[in-house]
Amino acid sequence: MRPQGLQPARAGDRRPGRDLRPGRALQPRHRRHGQAPGQARRRAPPRPLPLPRRRRRPLERDPPLSKRKLQIRPLQVEDYPRGQRTNLLLPLSQRALGTPVQVPFIVVRGAQPGPVLGISAAVHGNELNGIRIIHHLLEGLDPDGLRGALVCAPVANVPAFEAGIRRFPEDGVDLNHVFPGKAEGTPSQQYARALYKTFIGPLDYLIDIHTASEGRVNTMYVRADLHSQSCREMALLMNPQIILHGRSGDGTLRNAARANDVPAITVEAGNPSVFQGRMALEGEFGLLKVMTALGMIKEPGLPDSNIREPLICKSSRWLRTRSGGLLETHFALGQKVVKKQLLAEIHNAFGEVTASFKAPSDGVVIGMSRNPLSVPGMRFCHLGSLGEPAPPKQPRTGRMVRHLAETGTTLLPERGEPPST
User: Fold this and answer.
1) Which domains does the chain have, with CATH numbers?
2) Does residue 271 sit in helix, strand or coil?
3) pTM of the predicted model, to two decimals?
């Protein structure tokens, strides 16, 4: 007798995996598979696929980072092909991980022999206008039409450039105060030594491009030793608003080059941490005039309307505040001022004038602070003293004069005559 309520199973009622035999259908499914109520059914893990058998090759291992030594040697222009531009990344230092700090250099070797001109920028990491000036110059330069060579260091201070700051980040030192550096000195001194040895050696001339420091603005002006005829020629050809005479102080790249018998000038082109299109064009214009005078390129047909008569300053000084408050200036960049002219006033938080500053002498404004917050001793006006420097005891001539004699080019016309290049 069948149990009540059970019907015989039919072929159409059977489902795959379901046992409908008497006595089996009454058992819960989890008991048949040996699992607890609510527990998912266990499945056997899939078998891993067999890996294909490969013949292993021994790996080429790099030497340990601690055993890698930097090979610092001067750039040799002769190593690069004539009539071509070569972009280089040369390791001059190492980071804390032991990886190299690679510095970009650009060597453009002309088809014909001639002088070697070096151009550097971003010795301070946040001074960017010089980089754009170099880029503008190289965009229109034909190596086949070049005599001599152009060696450019568009980002000289790579660690500071990557950090977006002025000073060398590892020790907080101004890199332009430690040239030519020391092989076993501080981090900034060792970096400066490597840069100096690599870059300065092959040069006949150097133009080092800078900008104002953070919080200040500059005119387009040139720092040069006007007692050196070669430096005077290059300074005038750069077509600046102002030329400031002075032998560079110890530790600067310009002074290190001069000590190596390389005539050098410093171009101050505008403001930090920005690209200024006008400064890029003016800098390119000046560099083309220098290269034309050296016989490196043919006359590019530059418009005479862009040529200006720069103001010559025999010296300069920074004027400083003597009280704190809000600074309001009454002068502009490049403006000539006279002695006792009102230059600035200090206001307190209530708008009352608490101090005023007058020009100590006649002069021209080379640079100025753009920060209105003043504390005692803050620089607010870079004032140049107009006039030619006193003649040196022993006049010096330089390489540029010899190159001018060889090419038959006249750079310095008499006063009042248009320059001819």
Assistant:
1) 68-309 (3.40.630.10), 315-386 (2.40.50.100)
2) coil
3) 0.79
